[in-house]
Specification:
The complex is a heterodimer of chains A (167) and B (754). Chain A is globular, with a radius of gyration of 17 Å. Chain A is an alpha+beta fold and 167 residues long. Chain A is built from seven helices and five strands. By secondary structure, chain B is of the alpha+beta class. Chain B has three domains: 128 residues, Aldehyde oxidase/xanthine dehydrogenase, molybdopterin binding domain (Aldehyde Oxidoreductase, domain 4, 2-Layer Sandwich), CATH 3.30.365.10; 188 residues, Aldehyde oxidase/xanthine dehydrogenase, molybdopterin binding domain (Aldehyde Oxidoreductase, domain 4); 334 residues, Aldehyde oxidase/xanthine dehydrogenase, molybdopterin binding domain (Aldehyde Oxidoreductase, domain 4, 2-Layer Sandwich), CATH 3.30.365.10. Helix content of chain B is 29%, strand content 24%. In chain B, strand 25 and strand 26 form a beta hairpin. Chain B is globular and about 75 Å long. The chains are: A alpha+beta (167), B alpha+beta (754). The interface between A and B is large, with 53 and 61 residues. The structure holds FE2/S2 (inorganic) cluster (2 copies). One FE2/S2 (inorganic) cluster (FES) sits at the interface of chains A and B.
């Protein structure tokens, strides 16, 4: 189990994260979640379950919402990835973050990065979701603190503002 | 009366921005130079003795740091109330997740393989897994009789009532284990330095519990142990006692290796090895008069504590005191008992014994209603505690609570009566049956009995060099809003802006011991102390002639700056001082059990699908009196979140045990409510104008966990006409009960009717 032997089976994997080009050396089957957290220091994605159930490791990969604990690093080759750290900039995501703050959408905060990414993904596809559509959009993200209602409210609030801002 | 500017408003959560931008730092986000990862080798059998430990030769063991019980510098225990739980088993094994060895290595993957490459041989001993086996005593697995603790609460002479009773009604109710399922798993980082001692950073609720445990384990003086709380991703009681274990493990590995060590559990380990809600069994035998008034009763409350004593005695105490619900008992005898089994120790979970005994009481009230022939509404109304009456511990109700009024309002907002009639008609046909159920309850805020007196909490408030104010408490934030609400209180007390007040991250080298963050005590007890310590800052500035009685925020800032520049420091401390009229007898378990109670009436509406036997909660009304609501958004968040966990407790969350071990220790097979499982949860607050706590606030955090399960199961009985006295209530249980009833062809007869 010498470390030089291990390096030989690692591959160079290149992708874009939050608009920046990155190349990492990783085992092909290493979890994208670990690559981002340990190699790139992007700790906004959290590990809640490691088996695709909780969504706290959610991120956007080529515009799709994925659980990064289930994505092998190799699959990220050439992909464009957005994490919570990269959401900061756009006006739409700021509205979401503000709405989460105001409405009580974040309590302990551990599910929040994943929730906000899921919400942002939803609003990109569907700027005025109904309550049912919001519930559906969050179906892969678990929150143990809030009982979800204030999260729904935050998303509806942000959606309302989004529409107001664009009209 | 409410002329406050900050208290009562929805100011932004203090640490909210870090949380919504992903910048908040949790323990697993922490990396120290040269850090190793640590892992735990656990027992695989429920009970026995270790015969031999073998290290398979496939692993390069010289690369690993290995710690066993022999490496413990101090006492091999996790010091809490008692010292019976070892940090590492050296010989005896008492449950199947007992830590035996610790390993550390720079590579996490190598570590996992190494854990699997340790094999332990045992001389197995017979083990017990149920309360009944434990009570039978055929195997003694703890102490001399398998009993961790008993309490006896006696009021009046209950033996006299049976002969006068028009009805004697019996029932037995049980609740299952429940996993806290905070989304952030438990974790700790430890670093050791011979001069400074040990430092741990972690996900935890009670920094000074960890501090005490590390002092005993590492044999270090107080000043050589430092505990820092990191942002904590949910706790709910689940990070009250077990973090001391993980901190101990990380500390031992750090001491032996001389390097920082991180131990973060994965979900499977967290669920299997750490604490859960105590399973319970409650037996009621109640005497009633013809008009449905409780004359007296006997309540037997038993909880399964698992293999070690840990917090069971305190959970038992709260459960026993809440067992009589919000009702007047002229006489009562409550026998409470916590027993040992060979499962990992059960521990704190929001409500702390209350949800267990209240489930029983509120199911039993519906049972009583049926036998006596009154409605669930009327039976409760006739028995509600009134101001001036005494509780089961003979505490006089001094709060001007009007439970009848709470009930009326809940009935009206839930449209209880209309729905009841509608459902009675609709349920005749169709494969979906609807029902509506009530639960009325109370929850004591703060430590039980003399607890607060023993704790004697201290808080500090500091005037800073920049003129701002900083709160120093060991009370932790794990989502409930501790930081926000305490800052609101200090800002209000000093007439400052919310932005002028900050709060220190709990670090035992910086903050005094304001007690553990448990028991819904933070706002009421710690908040009150923050208020008086804050006023002390103004007092000092005033005495020094730098500030008058009325001042602007800018004037305060200038005075504070000038004082700190001149004197070096401006600090004010406040210590808990028990109110003089509070009486509690620890021996007889009698007196003022809690400084204040919160009160509530919850109403659940359900439908049961008779093709799938699944239950949906369609509407939920949560009405409560929690004193002054200091932050409306946070308060609603506490209630909704608690109700969601209560719905899980009733209908979703079932721990499957085999030989003392959790079998479904994954999020895929232990199911908590998702975004589509919850009804609208409508939250209402009554405010009575209280005198308790900071600006009239009482406890809120645990209350919402108590009511949902009985309200839901009462509603299910209303829908189906079938009794269910055990939770979690799964579709298969409903199927079995309905099939059994149709085989019997009739309803069972009421237990004892005179
Ligand atoms: S950690 Fe990836 S879904 Fe839970
Ligand atoms: S805010 Fe704590 S899990 Fe969602």
């Amino acid at each position: 189990m010498s470390s030089s032997g291990e390096d030989r089976s690692k591959s160079e994997i290149s992708f874009t994260v939050n608009g920046e080009q990155k190349t990492v050396l990783a085992f092909p089957m290493e979890r994208l979640l670990d690559v981002l957290r340990l190699q790139l220091g992007l700790t906004g994605a959290k590990e809640g379950c490691g088996e695709g159930e909780c969504g706290s490791c959610s991120l956007l990969m080529d515009g799709t919402l994925v659980n990064s604990c289930l994505v092998p690093a190799l699959q990220a080759q050439g992909a464009s990835i957005v994490t919570i750290e990269g959401l900061d900039a756009s006006a739409g995501s700021q509205r979401l973050q503000e709405a989460f703050l105001e409405c009580g959408g974040a309590q302990c905060g551990i599910c929040t990065p994943g929730m906000i990414l899921a919400a942002s993904h939803l609003l990109n596809k569907n700027p005025r979701p109904t309550l049912e559509e919001i519930k559906e959009g969050l179906s892969g993200n678990l929150c143990r603190c809030t009982g979800y209602l204030q999260i729904f409210e935050a998303i509806a609030t942000a959606a309302g503002r989004e529409t107001a801002a664009s009209s | 009366m409410n002329h406050e500017r900050i208290v009562g408003t929805a100011v932004p959560r203090k640490e909210g921005r870090e949380k919504v931008t992903g910048k908040a730092v949790y323990v697993d986000d922490m990396v120290l130079p040269g850090m190793l990862y640590g892992a735990t080798v656990r027992s695989q059998i429920p009970r026995g003795r270790i015969k031999k430990i073998t290290f398979e030769t496939s692993v390069a063991w010289s690369e690993f740091v290995i710690v066993s019980a022999k490496d413990i510098p101090g006492k091999n225990c996790i010091a809490l109330i008692g010292d019976d739980q070892p940090c590492l088993a050296s010989d005896s094994i008492n449950h199947p997740e007992e830590p035996v060895l610790l390993l550390a290595h720079p590579d996490r993957h190598a570590l996992r393989k190494a854990v699997d490459a340790v094999s332990i041989e045992y001389n197995p001993l017979p083990a017990i897994f149920t309360m009944e086996e434990s009570e039978r005593g055929s195997e003694i697995v703890w102490g001399t009789d398998n009993v961790f603790k008993t309490y006896l609460i006696q009021k009046g002479n209950v033996d006299d009532v049976w002969s006068r009773a028009d009805y004697i009604i019996e029932g037995e109710y049980s609740t299952g284990a429940q996993e806290q399922l905070y989304i952030e798993n438990n974790g700790m980082v430890a670093a050791y330095d011979a001069k400074q001692g040990i430092t741990v950073w972690g996900s935890l609720q009670c920094p000074y519990y960890v501090h005490k445990a590390l002092m005993a384990l590492c044999d270090l003086p107080a000043e050589k142990v430092r505990v820092v709380q990191m942002e904590t991703g949910g706790a709910f009681g689940g990070k009250e006692d077990y973090p001391s274990m993980i901190a101990g493990h990380a500390a031992l590995l750090a001491m032996k290796s001389g390097k920082p060590v991180k131990i973060v559990y994965d979900r499977a380990e967290d669920m299997a090895a750490t604490t859960k809600r105590h399973p319970s069994r409650t037996r009621h035998r109640t005497a009633l008069s013809r008009d449905g008034k409780i004359l007296g009763g006997e309540i037997e409350f038993t909880i399964d504590g698992g293999a070690y004593a840990t917090l069971s005695s305190v959970v038992l105490s709260r459960g026993a005191i809440h067992a009589g619900g919000p009702y007047y008992w002229p006489s009562v005898r409550i026998r409470a008992k916590a027993v040992a089994t060979n499962a990992p120790p059960h521990g704190a979970f929001r409500g702390f014994g209350g949800p267990q005994s209240i489930f029983a009481m509120e199911r039993h009230m519906d049972r009583i209603a049926q036998v006596v022939g009154l409605s669930p509404v009327e039976i409760r109304r006739r028995n509600f505690l009134q101001p001036g009456q005494t509780t089961t511990t003979e505490q006089v109700v001094r709060e001007l609570i009007d439970l009848g009024k709470l009930l009326d309002r809940a009935i009206s907002v839930s449209e209880y009566q209309t729905k009841k009639q509608e459902f009675a008609i609709e349920n005749g046909t169709g494969a979906t049956k609807k029902g509506i159920g009530i639960a009325a309850f109370l929850h004591g805020a703060g430590f039980t009995g003399s607890g607060e007196r023993y704790l004697s909490s201290v808080v500090g408030v500091e005037g800073c060099a920049d003129g701002g104010v900083r709160i120093l408490v060991s009370s932790t934030e794990f989502g409930q809003g501790t930081k926000t609400v305490l800052c609101q209180i200090a800002a209000e007390a000093l007439g400052l802006r919310y932005e002028d007040v900050t709060i220190a991250q709990p670090d035992t080298t910086e903050v005094p011991n304001s007690g553990p963050t448990v028991a819904s005590r933070t706002v009421m007890v710690v908040g009150k102390l923050v208020e008086s310590a804050a006023r002390g800052i103004h007092q000092t500035l005033k005495l020094s002639g730098m500030l008058g009685d009325s001042y602007s925020a800018e004037e305060f800032r200038a005075a504070c700056q000038a004082y700190v520049a001149g004197h070096g420091q401006l600090r004010s401390w406040a210590q808990y001082d028990p109110p003089p009229d509070v009486f509690w007898d620890d021996e007889k378990y009698r007196g003022e059990a809690y400084a204040a109670y919160s009160w509530a009436v919850y109403i659940a509406e359900v439908s049961v699908d008779l093709t799938t036997y699944s239950v949906s909660v369609n509407d939920f009304v949560a009405l409560q009196e929690v004193g002054r609501v200091l932050h409306p958004v946070l308060a609603i968040g506490q209630i909704v979140g608690g109700v969601a966990q209560g719905i899980g407790f009733a209908l979703f969350e079932k721990v499957i045990w085999q030989q003392g071990r959790m079998q479904n220790n994954q999020m895929t097979n232990y199911i908590m409510p998702t975004s589509s499982d919850l009804p609208p949860i409508r939250v209402f607050f009554e405010e009575l104008g209280n005198v308790h706590g900071a600006f009239g606030a009482k406890g809120i955090g645990e209350l919402p966990m108590d009511g949902p399960a009985p309200a839901i199961v009462n509603a299910i009985e209303d829908a189906l006409g079938v009794r269910f006295d055990s939770i979690p209530l799964m579709p298969e249980d409903i199927y079995d009960a309905i099939t059994a009833r149709s085989l019997r062809g009739e309803d069972e007869v009421a237990s004892v009717i005179r």
